[in-house]
Write a structure and sequence with these properties.
By secondary structure, this protein is mainly beta. The chain contains three helices and ten strands; from the N terminus they run E-E-E-E-H-E-E-H-E-E-H-E-E. The strands form two sheets. Strands 2-3-8-4-7-6 form a six-stranded mixed β-barrel. Strands 1-10-9 form a three-stranded antiparallel beta sheet, with no helix packed on it.
């Protein structure tokens, strides 16, 4: 994976922050949805708004029930295995989809009231994250 000096991305009305352009993929029929995945060192793992489950053809409550603690308290979510593609940010902004990283069969936690995809500890555990807030860029590399 080569993610070096990727620019911060603005998701919604929030300030720009470390994030990646991603595609979440259904395990059963390769249905997918492009979005922005926020790098979140405090997140449980791959956390996704519950509404994405239906887009991917999944019944949210048919997954493994998980209770997680968030900044807003405890919340119940449902875990399904999905795939994830990460696109090169510079190329994506030009309208091209150049694959940087792909993982399959990862546990994705679908959570109600979540508005953004969070790439947490499960995504980061085998990577070194470097953030330069002055330049508004970040890098991920293998240790």
């Amino acid at each position: 994976m080569k993610i070096v000096d990727y620019p911060f991305i603005r998701a919604g009305e929030a300030d720009p922050r470390p994030a990646l352009f991603v595609r979440l993929i259904s395990p059963s029929d390769s249905r997918g949805q492009d979005s922005i995945g926020i790098i979140d060192t405090g997140a449980y793992g791959y956390c996704v708004p519950a509404g994405y489950a239906e887009i991917l053809g999944l019944d949210p409550s048919s997954g493994v029930e998980r209770i997680v603690r968030t900044a807003n308290g405890k919340i119940t979510g449902y875990e399904h295995n999905c795939g994830l593609k990460v696109w090169d940010s510079d190329e994506y902004l030009k309208g091209n989809k150049v694959l940087v990283c792909e993982v399959s069969e990862i546990p994705v936690l679908f959570l109600p009231n979540l508005t953004e995809i969070l790439l947490g500890v499960s995504f980061l555990k085998e990577k070194v994250l470097t953030i330069n807030y002055n330049r508004k860029v970040f890098s991920l590399r293998k240790p």
